Amino acid sequence: MLGSDSHNEPVALDPIRHPAGLPWPSRWPLFVASRRTLLSLVLAAIIPLLLFGAWVVYLIAQEQRADARAQAYQTMKHVGERISSEISAQLQVVESLAASTSLDQPFLSRFYIEAERMKALQPLWATVELADPSGMQILNLFRPLGDTLGPTADRDSFDAVLQTRRSAVGGIGPMGRISGKRLVAIRAPVIRDGELRYVVTVSFLPNAISSILKEAGAPENWVGVVVDSRGNIIARTVAEELEVGRPAAPGLRKAIASAPEGFYVAPTLEGIEVETAFRTLPNTGGWSVHFGVPRDVLNAPVSRSLFVLAGGGIVSLALAFALASLTARDIAQRRRSEAERSALALAVSEERGAVAVEAAELGTWRWDMDGGEVVGSERCWILLDLPRRPQAGSNARISTQEFLDAICEEDRPNVEAAMRNCINDGRTLNVEFRTAHRDGSLHWVRATGRAPHLVGEAPRVVHGVLADIDPQKRAEAERVDLQRRLAEAQENEQRRIARELHDQVGQTVTGLSLGLKALEQRLRGQPLEEQVRWLRHLTSELGRDIHRAAADLRPTALDDLGLKEALNAFASDWSERFGIRADVQFIGSDSRLSPDIETAVYRVVQEALTNVLKHAEASNVSIVLESRADRLRVIIEDDGAGFNPDGAPGQTDDESRRSRPPLGLSGIRERLSLVKGKLHVESAPGEGTTLFIQISLPQEGA
Question: Could you tell me the pTM of the whole model?
């Protein structure tokens, strides 16, 4: 049949017969021409692809270089924020130690004991020192109380405290003669009645700074370093044990002397040329963080991409000469080939999509709003626990009502509203809901999808996927429950300690006071009467301090009388102690709230007033509680200095300190999260601060 000369009979077994009926010998030139046309088009496509690919490689290399610089900057910024937070925390502890009432007494034995207790709670502290304004040490935990001590070290930070009467952070010190280690000093003034009496100094190991630097996750060949204001190394990611305390590289010290932050290129102590991102940290006495990336690492991708670009140009020129020798003869053959390739690519794409959906354990579905039916895959019905499941590789149809019946009744309105918004407004569907399984359990799933945008009259259909998010929801619930139990345990322990202070220590001090009073009466007119009177006065002050500490830990009024009486008592005592007028108003119902809500509100108000005392410099504080059937609103407002939550560039140290939100706000938010409360802060420098708190109250019987 293939060799027949007949042109009239169709040849059924010839798969490549020309439509006009030409025999195989006559069709061979057309077949060759088609191959030449295909080859020409392939070459024409390869030439721009080579040039474009080489250019893309070069752009990617440049982007990789920029990403590495950006990563170095972000790493440096993250480390700087953590170090600033650590130093701020240490400053608060030192300032609280400087505010200790034990320094008001003529004898320092109580302060020595308190300093030892604080040092035991801070594992990185090496010693606590107390010096007079002349710089002579009065007390040092390295030596017994009463030993003769020399002048304090690091006079720069000591003189800064004397001049500014503010806390100061020193640099890395020399190798200590007693400790055998290099320490960092934090100093705080002890001011009483407007007079600077002492300077409290805490010397600690820079191990915490080194841990923050090494935990930043930077690559091994990067060089990270923290230096003090004099350019001496406090911590380093490379050869730290040899370089701590030594002056940093000249390029580093020149950079921090010229600008507070930026980039610079300079060799390290090992002679490696690096591009370094740096920033001077606020409130650290001039410390700065530096992260450098070796230049050969940054420039290696760019150099390789230049070779690729040159090679792509040469190959493109060669292919251009080859393409010039070819001609396009048969467009139809090209179109058939392109159609075959398109069909194959479409099939591969669909297969890949199916594999991706199966690997992610997602259920696919299509919601036809007009047809009133939902078409879904097998995984979709498994997640909804519906009995009607399709065979593997196929889909099944159910009515819209059957689909909604599988959803928890409380969540159905949200799902239906989200579907309508997706259809009517073109929004992307993203809704979480619970499914009611046949065994009575509830499981969380997330539905995502969108409506196709078609020209003309388009059917109201939503395509999407269904994902199982029940493990994440359960983990979140367990986390909240753990936080709640920790808070309850903390309150119980504070209640126990307060009871012990009041019932045991308080009674003992009361007995001591009564005994001293009796002794004073017996010694009346004798030389020892004045000393006994002083001891009785000191014992009375101790009793009041113990009572106040017990009340701060857990006020008995909160358990016995409720939130209203407890807040009134706390505000009155706080106002009397610190001289700031505090006004408390209650609006609405006077009924008792649940113990966890009352405790949370009391602690929030307590933390807010502590922030006012530390940061606001206010004269008046207003506290308003509005209790309704479904919610509790709390408004706390002061007329103090205020702050800017976002901060602003170009500020002085004092302005920067005022622009930062107090650290207590994070504790307030964490405590409110346990009772599903929300916090909104309104503040500006010089205009005071207002906290708006709202807590949803559980309905009776819910």
Answer: 0.39
